[in-house]
Amino acid sequence: MELEQQFLSLLGIVEGLQRRVYQLEEENKLLIRGQKQMLEWWEQNQQDNLNFQENAIYELYDGMKAQLDGFFPKILPGESAVEEIIAHGKSLARFGDGEFAAIAGRIRHRFQTEIEENLGERLKEVLQSEDENLLVGIADNYGSLEKYTEQARREIRCYLNPQVRREHLALLDSKKVYYDAYVTRPYVMYQDNQTDAPGKRFKNLKRIWEDRECVLVEGCFTGLGVDNDLFDNARSIQRILGPAENAFARYPEILEACKNQNKEALFLLALGPTATVLASDLCKAGYQAVDIGHLDLEYEWFLKGEGCRTLVTGKYNNEIGEEQDLSPIENEDYRSQIIADFS
After folding, report:
1. Which of 57, 118, 129, 289 could be 267's S-S partner, Cβ–Cβ 3.0 to 4.6 Å?
2. Are the C-beta atoms of residues 251 and 274 closer than 8 Å to each other?
3. Consecutive sets of 10 residues in the chain, 343 residues long: mean pLDDT of each?
4. Which of 184, 78, 75 is nearest to 140 (CA)?
């Protein structure tokens, strides 16, 4: 009797295991079917994208037979700006989303967290400047985005919606020649960022300060060239520091300190929207000033070689969402180069 009970018990266990195996087989079939459907969807999506790319030019051209609402700004490549800066001593003021937002009375980046009415007015004045010695840079975002990574294209399309495009075009001149503001962003955004092309672009940019006496005007946590060789080919480096954020509040003092420097010096500026105004004012005063913006961070990312934006320890970065633990830069060479501090 006991053996019979044990047998029945084992038989129940076996039957339970068989049912579980059957259930697992059915679930596995569902998973395989689901994965097959996903693969088919992905392949179809890829084919749809390819078909769109091949046919888009005809669809767009047909749509363009009607008058476009706006125009495409004339933007010369960054290499042309570099040649003008080197060969003819031109200055460069750059406009990105932060500068356009400031003109519109909005806040877009952490380095300008307060609305400064005068800053917006000054930026508009610079954007529409007719000074032949000042190159005005705007981002090459208004037409084809083919040269950028998929991530960069998504970011540009998300930002440059019809309303923002109209705001830009209302400020720009269809007859004016602009220069690509991305000249100082030679790495992360570009589809060729895993080739030798970014290295060549950085090498070309370094010609700007080759054997020049340079004054770097930067935020107090920017650290241009600290712990890298970006400016090793400059003859000398001096630094004027401003606040990491809302630097325009100290603008009169920063401008005055700059004007006390040798007119043969080259000013390299990384101070948010304030740098755009400063480049123009220094140019009008007979100095050469180049707004280099995020160039040092781009160089740090280039040296890491990961093809994306990452946190750079000890350097202010408005494009990374993470909280940053920043403290005064203690590098001895850096400290010895500071000639004025308005931070």
Report:
1. 289
2. yes
3. 66 75 81 82 79 71 68 96 98 96 79 73 97 98 94 92 94 97 98 97 98 97 96 98 94 98 97 97 98 97 94 81 74 96 95
4. 75
Lookup: tokens for 95: 């406009």
Cα torsion 55, 58, 60, 65 to 10°: value is: -170
Q: Residue 157 corresponds to which amino acid?
A: R
User: With b meaning 16 or more CB within 10 Å and e meaning fewer, what string describes 87-106?
Assistant: eeebbbbbbbbbbbbbbeee
Q: For tokens 């059957």, what's the residue?
A: 22
Angle between the N-to-C axes of helices 273-284 and 117-127, in degrees from 0 to 180, rounded to the nearest 10 = 60
CA pair distance 137, 77, nearest whole angstrom = 10
> Mapped to the 3 state alphabet, what secondary structure does the chain carry?
CHHHHHHHHHHHHHHHHHHHHHHHHHHHHHHHHHHHHHHHHHHHHHHHHHHHHHHHHHHHHHHCCCCCCCCCCEEECHHHHHHHHHHHCCEEEEECHHHHHHHCCCCCCCCCCCCCHHHHHHHHHHHCCCCCCEEEEECCCCCCCCCECHHHHHHHHHHCCHHHHHHHHHHCCCCCEEEEHHHHCCCCCECCCCCCHHHHHHHHHHHHHCCCEEEEEEECCCCCCCCCCCCCCCCEEEEEEECCCCHHHHHHHHHHHHHCCCCCCEEEEEECHHHHHHHHHHHHCCCEEEECCCHHHHHHHHHHCCCCCCCCCCCCCCCCCCCCCCCCCCCHHHHHCEEEECC
